[in-house]
Write a structure and sequence with these properties.
Ribosomal Protein S5, domain 2, about 30% helix, single chain, alpha+beta
């Protein structure tokens, strides 16, 4: 099972200029499509006098979730070249916007394709690339008496903590590598319940602990 993907670590920028037009590129790491509109709106406010805000994104495994938008430029001259650079670097979960300030000279289709491609490359090339795991999320609900055991087990198994909240009881959302869900759950239950491997493999309920699959 493929459960790793490559993305960028943080926001990266770049630019390209041709015959007076400026192409300012912004690359963002994202988790879903809903992350994109706030970035786009922020750029519209930052660059209110720009002519175009063209973009592309690819999300998830398999490469099937993507979009390329020309924002008024001739069809296929902006969004597709941007998407092409995302793919050239082998990335996913990335959103790239190229903001264009028109310089007064028409660039033609080939000039536009080159400009948007070059701007996207300028933003993506220096970005730090990272390989991330595809994880399945679980919520651990537990009483105060188990709090120390749960947190020690999560730490010992090097599980990612997505969310956590504590009071008289605790709730922690953890991420488990998708290809290792079953053996990891067994180890988690064994650690928290102080059980032998054979006992934990039956995934017994532990008093005071509830494990809920979230996705």
């Amino acid at each position: 099972m493929e459960d790793t993907y490559r993305t960028i670590e943080s926001t990266s920028t770049g630019d390209f200029r041709d015959r007076g037009s400026k192409f300012l590129a912004y690359a963002y790491p994202i988790g879903s499509e809903t992350d994109c509109p706030p970035f786009l709106e922020a750029l519209r406010k930052e660059h209110p006098k720009a002519r175009h805000y063209c973009y592309a994104y690819r999300i998830g495994m398999g490469g099937l979730n993507f979009r390329a938008n020309d924002d008024g430029e001739p069809s296929g001259t902006a969004g597709r070249p941007i998407l092409g650079q995302i793919d050239r670097f082998g990335l996913t979960n990335v959103f790239v916007v190229v903001v264009r300030y028109f310089g007064g000279t028409l660039l033609g289709a080939s000039g536009l394709i080159n400009a948007y491609r070059s701007a996207a490359e300028a933003a993506l090339s220096p970005a730090v690339k990272v390989d991330k795991l595809v994880e399945k999320h679980f919520r651990l609900e537990f009483g105060y008496a188990l709090m120390s055991d749960v947190m020690q087990a999560v730490k010992k198994l090097h599980l990612s903590i997505v969310e956590q909240q504590f009071g008289d009881s605790g709730e922690v959302v953890i991420g488990i590598r998708k290809s290792q869900v079953q053996p990891t759950l067994v180890q988690l239950i064994a650690q928290i319940g102080n059980l032998h491997q054979e006992e934990a493999e039956k995934l017994p309920e532990i008093e005071g602990l509830k494990i809920v699959a979230l996705d």
